[in-house]
Write a structure and sequence with these properties.
With 223 residues, the protein is α/β, with parallel strands linked by helices. 50% of the residues lie in helices and 15% in strands.
């Protein structure tokens, strides 16, 4: 696809539980665009690894699981081999395993085209860690969404409690610190803002205020 005919993409990258998914979904809803939750693909791969019995340290085996993922995104439902796993992939142990296998370059390579295939008219909002740096480097608007680790842990705690999972705030905070560190330090597609990304700190902003900030930046690009 030539750049002139490519659908526009707004990328929203940032550390764990910074609110990327919620903001991406709402911005996409307001614009009538498609949405890509790239983290779900890493989480699905992690779930696939556990179910296949492949060892988490077997890099080629894990990349094979990523390449063969039989997944369908259907609104709120995420079907893996026909089974709805939208709830199962949100568990913390799946997020932690996703973060480990996301450091393997062959796994990232196996998921690259699948992510790019989400791009369609009239536009796409994509959230993750490397949307602006690797997957959609030509995106016209790149956001790097940050928030204090304590604010993020509180949000994740409420989100998981709301889904009926049993969680402990201090364990969550510790897991998040480890996960952020691993995402930042990995050699392949580390969590860093793209050079042309706009930083938004949502620690003291409501969801609506953050959504408005993104839409405001987009309207300045377009008009
Ligand atoms: O919900 P949370 O922000 O914790 O994570 P997620 O976006 O669902 O992603 C799960 C894990 O996948 C992250 O901890 C990252 O290590 C990895 N990931 C990645 O490496 N690249 C992406 N584009 C998205 C997620």
């Amino acid at each position: 696809m030539s750049p002139s005919s490519a659908a526009p993409v707004i990328t929203i990258d940032g550390p764990t539980a910074s609110g990327k998914g919620t903001i991406a979904g709402r911005v996409a809803g307001r614009l009538g665009w498609a949405v890509l939750d790239s983290g779900a693909l890493y989480r699905l791969t992690a779930l696939g690894v556990l179910r296949s019995g492949c060892g988490a340290d077997d890099v080629d085996g894990v990349a094979g699981v990523a390449a063969r993922l039989d997944v369908v995104f259907q609104g709120e439902r995420i079907l893996l081999g026909g089974e709805d796993v939208a709830g199962a992939i949100r568990e913390e142990h799946i997020g932690n395993l996703a973060s480990r296998i996301a450091a393997y370059p062959p796994v990232r390579a196996a998921l690259l085209q699948r992510q790019r295939d989400f791009r369609r008219h009239p536009g796409l909002v994509a959230d993750g860690r490397d949307m602006g740096t690797v997957v959609f480097p030509d995106a016209p608007l790149k956001i790097f969404l940050v928030a204090d680790v304590e604010a993020r842990a509180e949000r994740r705690y409420k989100q998981l409690k709301g889904k009926g999972f049993s969680v402990n705030l201090s364990d969550l905070l510790e897991d998040m610190r480890i996960r952020d560190q691993r995402d930042r330090d990995r050699a392949s597609a580390p969590l860093v803002p793209a050079e042309d990304a706009v930083m938004i700190d949502s620690s003291a902003l409501s969801i609506e205020q953050t959504v408005e900030a993104v839409l405001d930046l987009w309207s300045k690009k377009v008009f």
